[in-house]
Write a structure and sequence with these properties.
The complex is a heterodimer of chains A (73) and B (312). Chain A is an alpha+beta fold and 73 residues long. Chain A has a 5-stranded antiparallel sheet with strand order 3-2-1-4-5. The longest helix of chain A has 19 residues. Chain B has 312 residues and is an alpha/beta fold. Chain B is built from 10 helices and 15 strands. In chain B, strands 6-5-4-3-2-1-14-15 form an 8-stranded mixed sheet, with helices on one face. Chain B has a 7-stranded mixed sheet with strand order 7-8-9-10-11-12-13. In chain B, a hairpin with an 8-residue loop joins strand 1 and strand 2. In chain B, helix 5 packs parallel to helix 6. Classes of the chains: A alpha+beta (73), B alpha/beta (312). At the A-B interface, strand 1, strand 2 and helix 1 of A face helix 6 and strand 6 of B.
């Protein structure tokens, strides 16, 4: 199982962050319809892709809290 | 005088290395191998790129460091050093070696324009090697905060460094000696992180720079709407020269004499887009590109500007 996070879109290309923070480019057409920046994608051996919404929300909350603590919101 | 001699010696080393490389290269060509290193990789592997550029002898220098497809800008003024973005993580050595070579130990300001990997990927290495005093980032909210480790790592570094951490607020002006920089964007919240890019106007005497990160049409329109002072001499093209940035209306207001495009050679995204290059020509701007010229340094004495490129 591979886990990647969509960092951004550059035209038709989804630029994704791998678990070791290296970046890969994936054609948007190869990803499930409606994927968005920030989505966490779980890819199994057969290239089936699942979007982990819970993990995305958990991480976003945690990271926003971290930002607010450092920057004193 | 000492540094001049040093630079001469380095040039000699550089020249002889280049001759040796050229000989090896021509032998490889004559053997007709399929895999041939290009000059870029020869220069990079020999770590010669940093030494081969001569920094103008001006009080202010703005360095557009060649980090491939990404942004990394160093502003040097007297003993003050400001770093705007750091390029991808894979270019960390390029950035830290460059700063080292410039004799930098501390960074007075680090500005992370927005949290995409091609702008903040190497920040952990920067924070590890240099003493950072102040950090500026855009204020992100629940609507646009990234879920990436790259952003989490940046925050962790800022926290561990003890640097003074502040959000970039539009209208705030920072003065260091005779230079000043002002935050012109983002004045609104956007879902697209490119539009959250911190945009900086830098002034020294009669010379000025506009550094726009990846700001796109929406942010450019907002800057026009709030009446930001956009007219400058040197523009860093928005978003590596994307056609979704650098709109004609924006370029008309900026009216740059020179535009720097920071992008990677033969990058996957087609940056800079032809439309942008045409718009810049229409706006009467000269263009310098890091994919063609390598690292580009602009020197300013407060009246005149000069440009030095790593590759001619």
């Amino acid at each position: 199982m591979k886990k990647i996070i969509i960092d951004r879109f550059e035209g038709d290309i989804a630029v994704c962050e791998c678990e070791d923070c290296s970046m890969i480019n994936i054609q948007k057409s190869r990803l499930p319809k409606g994927v968005r920046v920030g989505n966490i994608l779980l890819i199994d051996e057969n290239e089936n892709i699942k979007i982990d919404v819970q993990e995305e929300l958990r991480r976003k909350e945690q990271i926003l809290r971290m930002q607010q603590q450092i920057f004193g919101d | 005088m000492g540094s001049r001699r040093k630079s001469f010696n380095k040039k000699t080393v550089f020249l002889s290395s280049a001759i040796v490389a050229a000989l090896i290269f021509s032998v490889i060509i004559s053997l007709n191998f399929d895999f041939l290193p290009d000059w870029d990789s020869i220069f990079k592997n020999a770590n010669l790129s940093v030494q081969s550029i001569e920094v103008p002898d001006d009080p202010l220098t703005v360095h557009f460091i060649d980090v491939g497809q990404g942004d990394c800008i160093l502003i040097k003024y007297e003993s003050c050093n400001i770093l705007i973005d750091s390029g991808e993580k894979e270019n960390a050595d390029t950035v830290t070696d460059y700063l080292d070579y410039q004799g930098i130990r501390a960074l007075d300001y680090v500005i992370a324009t927005h949290p995409h990997s091609d702008h903040i990927g190497s920040m952990p290495d920067v924070f590890e090697e240099f003493d950072v005093h102040n950090v500026l980032i855009p204020r992100l909210t629940q609507k646009n905060v990234p879920s990436t480790k790259t952003y989490e790592n940046l925050l962790a570094c800022i926290s561990a460094s003890g640097a003074k951490a502040s959000y970039a607020i539009v209208g705030e002006k920072y003065k260091v000696g005779e230079i000043s920089f002002e935050i012109l964007a983002p004045s609104e919240q956007y879902e697209d992180l490119n539009n959250m890019s911190v945009v900086i106007r830098l002034d020294f005497g009669d010379t000025s720079f506009l550094l726009t990160g990846d700001a796109q049409r929406e942010s450019e329109e907002a800057m026009l709407k709030i009446g930001a002072d956009l007219d400058v001499d040197v523009l860093k093209a928005g978003h590596h020269g994307s056609k979704y940035s650098n709109t004609p209306e924006f370029l008309e207001a900026v009216s740059p004499k020179l535009t720097i495009v920071s992008c990677g050679k033969n990058n996957t995204y087609g940056h800079p887009h032809d439309e942008t290059l045409q718009r810049l020509k229409n706006a009467g701007s000269e263009i310098l590109r890091t994919d063609l010229a390598g690292t580009i340094i602009i020197g300013s004495d407060g009246e005149k500007l000069c440009a030095v490129c790593e590759k001619y």
